[in-house]
Design a protein that fits this description.
The protein has a single domain, classed as Jelly Rolls (Sandwich), CATH 2.60.120.10. Helices cover about 0% and strands about 50% of the residues. The chain has no helices and ten strands. The protein is globular and about 35 Å long. The mean pLDDT is about 95.
Amino acid sequence: MIIDFDKIKEEHIDGFKGGEGKLDMRAYVDDKARIMYSTLRPGAFSGKHQHVGTFEVMYVISGELTVHYDDKTEVARVGQLHYCPEGHFHWFENCTDHDVVYLAIVPTLG
């Protein structure tokens, strides 16, 4: 199956998961996963959230994504992937003056 994000309507989200700033997302969703091609704008950040019954992987396509994972802060750069296992908390932000583009996958477990 090919997922063509250019053919999926873009959502413009202000304050993703209780955060602040702009996140633009094209999402493919079915009963097994949510697959998102996203652009996090400079200065934007998500709210802190826990993954229950699922996990999340975020692969950075361009820019630098600062991720706060449990009690650690990490920077994911182009070609790197952030993994938030089931049961863990994270939130992420764009601390740069450029967009961060990433692909996120959140499967449905069970």
